[in-house]
Structure to design on (109 residues):
């Protein structure tokens, strides 16, 4: 993967593009150790969150936030283009674990 880690939080909120059904150990094997782990359930969706942030050679930002209790990772991007995010993460558009959002939306990390 050609991903350069960047620090969280992003300078501007990224677009939420899709959800990926995946477990913690599989995502950590894919992306390495998280750049940040949120353990305060009051700041999350009710459990731990593993967070990663990268920039692509195209300068697109990518964020991945795993909502650990639910086995779902939200994929973020700025600009709001899903295909380069999937390509960078070595995922296929037709992956059955993938649920692209009909309309990307802004959600802060």
């Amino acid at each position: 993967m050609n991903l350069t880690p960047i620090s969280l939080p992003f300078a501007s909120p990224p677009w939420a593009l899709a959800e990926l059904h995946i477990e913690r150990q599989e995502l950590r094997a894919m992306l390495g150790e998280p750049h940040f782990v949120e353990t305060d359930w009051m700041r999350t969706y009710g459990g731990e969150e593993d967070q990663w942030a990268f920039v692509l050679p195209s300068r697109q930002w990518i964020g991945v936030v795993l909502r650990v209790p639910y086995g779902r990772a939200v994929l973020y991007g700025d600009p709001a283009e899903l295909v380069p995010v999937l390509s960078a993460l070595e995922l296929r558009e037709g992956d059955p674990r993938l649920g692209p959002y009909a309309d990307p939306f802004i959600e802060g990390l």
Summary: Helices lie at 24-31, 82-88.
